[in-house]
């Protein structure tokens, strides 16, 4: 079994090889802001600093270094992604916003990044510009746990 035959990290229900891998390998460019956001989440899961820098808007990229990005990965294990809302960001549009919650483990401690991200379409590509960090979303005790265990939240990470 190869990584290409596993479910994609972005939560699309597609195989990685038919989903975000095509973006991370440079075979295709994401056609929507949401597709770029999902591929960036996958890049965080795989600690792919080169893709994260390449998909960052040039003004933000000038302030970021590969070395600093690699240091920022630390021991964080990204577990799952929930796209909450997309506004614009479709083919033919120039701007887009994607609100999402990304769940992670840092050692034994679980956490969540809830963000409203902004994207622009320039030079034939979508780029991540910046985002606003939002308060954590509430999760229902009876829904599937964010960590991917297959158990209900109340039985897995009841915090």
Automatic annotation (TrEMBL):
<dbReference type="InterPro" id="IPR048469">
    <property type="entry name" value="YchJ-like_M"/>
</dbReference>
<dbReference type="InterPro" id="IPR004027">
    <property type="entry name" value="SEC_C_motif"/>
</dbReference>
<protein>
    <submittedName>
        <fullName>YchJ family protein</fullName>
    </submittedName>
</protein>
<dbReference type="InterPro" id="IPR032710">
    <property type="entry name" value="NTF2-like_dom_sf"/>
</dbReference>
<dbReference type="Pfam" id="PF17775">
    <property type="entry name" value="YchJ_M-like"/>
</dbReference>
<feature type="domain" description="YchJ-like middle NTF2-like">
    <location>
        <begin position="32"/>
        <end position="131"/>
    </location>
</feature>
<dbReference type="Pfam" id="PF02810">
    <property type="entry name" value="SEC-C"/>
</dbReference>
